[in-house]
Amino acid sequence: MASALFDSGISTEHIPVKLVIAGPFGVGKTTIVSALSEIKPLNTEEVLTQAGTLVDDLTGVNEKTTTTTAIDFGRLTLPGVVLYLFGAPGQARFQVLWNELVRGALGVLVLADTRRIDDSFAVLDLVEKAGIRYAVAVNHFPDSPDYPPEALREALDLGPRTPLVVCDARDPASARASLIALVEHIRELVLS
To answer: What are phi and psi of 17, to 5 degrees?
Structure first.
């Protein structure tokens, strides 16, 4: 299946593709990069400090003890393609990294959390302003409310062609299905 996604006629062994994993604070970006990566991922996780609690809203993620302070990085090789995965930090104070992270990226997988759906709008705005292709994966947490896809699409104000999937960022198969939804969407847009 993956080889069909990238059958472009280019005679290279592996085409390098840069993808960004974005989303609000505490949505599971580090977790999904770790679940997907075939190499030991680079994580820039630091312990949340008391000073950080004045800046980071822990509502809905009270159990969170660490945060990404720069990027996460992982790699996933599929037939004909090597995906380089860059996890973006979710807090507004780290958005200075955004332009550099999306430079040269083929697409963005935006993670959302139904417990804090409104937190996704700032990230979706950044992605849309950058004019980059994207898909949305709703990361399902044990205490997440369940909604039908139509309700999620409406709540996130997504167009009908924007891929929307529900995933468990901890599960490699589920994480991979989310990534495949993004890659298929990119391929569809590029070839149309």
So the answer is: -130, 125
pTM of the model: 0.81
Instruction: From 74, 144, 135, 83, select the one nearest 110 (Cα to Cα).
Output: 135
**85-128 tens-digit pLDDT:** 999 976 666 677 788 889 999 999 999 999 999 999 999 999 99
- 3-state DSSP percent of the chain in helix, strand and coil, to 5: 35, 25, 35
List the one residue out of 34, 31, 101, 103 whose CA is nearest residue 71.
101
Largest CA distance in the chain: 54
Closest of 137, 187, 117, 140 to residue 20, by C-alpha: 137
